[in-house]
Amino acid sequence: MGPMDSGIRDVRAERLASGAYADVFSDLHPPLSRHEAFVESDRCYFCYDAPCMNACPTGIDIPLFIREIAADNPTGSAKTILSENILGGMCARVCPTETLCEQACVREAAEGKPVKIGLLQRYATDHLMANGQHPFDRAEPTGKSVAIVGAGPAGLSAAHRLAMRGHDVTIFEARPKAGGLNEYGIAAYKSVADFAQKELDFVLDIGGITIHNDKALGRDISLDALKTGFDAVFLGMGLPGVNELGLDGEDAAGCIDAVDFISVLRQSDDLSQIAVGRDVVVIGGGMTAIDVAVQTKLLGAENVIIAYRRGPEHMNASDFEQELALKNGVIIRHWLQPRALTRNDRGEVCGITLDYTNMADGRLSPSGESITLASDQVFKAIGQTPAEAVLTGAGIALSRGRVSVDDEGRTSVPGIWAGGDCVAGGQDLTVAAVQDGKIAAESIHRTLMQQPEKVSGFVEAVMTTSADGTPLPEHRTIHTIQVVG
Ligand SMILES: Cc1cc2nc3c(=O)[nH]c(=O)nc-3n(C[C@H](O)[C@H](O)[C@H](O)COP(=O)(O)OP(=O)(O)OC[C@H]3O[C@@H](n4cnc5c(N)ncnc54)[C@H](O)[C@@H]3O)c2cc1C
Ligand code: SF4
Q1: Do 87 and 173 share a domain, yes or no?
Q2: Atom 8 (ligand 2): residue with closest C-alpha?
Q3: Which terminal CB of the chain, N or C, has fewer other CB atoms within 10 Å?
Q4: Same domain, residue pair 249 and 373
Q5: Which residues belong to any copy of the FAD/NAD(P)-binding domain (predicted)?
């Protein structure tokens, strides 16, 4: 008898033998040895106008850093990488290289076997971080201060670049730990051994960056206060909400937000205590759907099915990610969309009914047939939503709830920049958030350095002296003058 017949849900911790967790959650792409790095770097043609470099959102000089590895200069190689992407260590672990640099590699076109750019990047950055030295110096202090909202990849990248340019940076982060989805979202097998916090410490080593954790914009601080108290503001709040399925019973036990589940998993220091169902259904077709499906399977769920409403070619998850799921025993079923949750007499979710779909004239619609699957846990992984409420009323132009920015990351409000997942039209990738932060930081720097310095006593002098230098009578004192700076 299945759980739906009995209404009994089988959700348990400790599905694996206690020693098995470390093994199954080990590094997805183990690092290259020195010898392997030499062999791999030797495969690179050091192409002129290299297509791999053009495909990297942060524009890392890939042939140069590979050449530096080949010349046994991994420290120089890491500096080449980090000068464009300060989170190059994390990106080496999480970038979907199969759709970025490695897809563009000429060896991929010629032999279907690209140079392992991601692993080489990891080799170099791991080497540099292991020696504990920060590779960049701060410029002379500018006396300018910048507030950053959100300590995810976008915020940290902006903070590092601004600190390097000599500005003082203060980050306000809603969560107890900094790192954003690097700390709370990325699959556990992509970022092992607390790498997100190690990389955070590495970034902060530049100096000049202060992080206030547990301080949320809209709850503990206002945009007005940030605008008044700082010379510029950068918004990097990511996408804090999640899309709902729109079904009855969605808030019942057993219907779970995938991003929340992953964040609990990422913060756990004992994976054996994370309870998973025997039968699991994941709704979605992106990276989050793959990640939650693979991780529940690794935690010991017997049957994990991803249900996606369109075909494989429409999935946001790359071919590599889809294969990863299949290799781990996850079943991906296409052309299915959720219709109703089944609940037991305690109101807990124990199954889901899905409509088969088809596409006609570019429109997706139910075919009239449906299927009901037993499911101890139904995971929602159909996308995240922006922090619209926090920004409403601030005068910042939004597009579908995300912040509209120009190509320098400037919002419609002077003095406020934004980047990463919270802005409209982005790629929703770690590496893209890093690039946004870097571009916005350079724009902020240019803007702040063009502004006239505050002149001590200037306001008082103007407000109390007439054009010929004689003191103004009391009633002619000008009260409205504003001085930029
Ligand atoms: C489950 C999952 C897996 C993913 N896996 C990958 C992957 O393998 N590879 C990849 O390239 N990309 C992946 N991504 C996407 C990637 O993580 C994001 O694109 C990237 O983290 C965006 O960076 P960000 O700085 O814009 O936002 P975030 O990383 O979300 O950081 C935003 C920060 O702002 C804080 N914040 C939010 N609201 C406020 C507020 N009001 N006040 C103060 N602080 C606030 C948040 O707490 C958070 O720390 C994944 C995403 C998810 C959800
Ligand atoms: S495209 Fe491939 S072979 Fe050419 S420089 Fe880039 S990594 Fe090397």
Answers
A1: no
A2: 44
A3: N
A4: yes
A5: 145-437
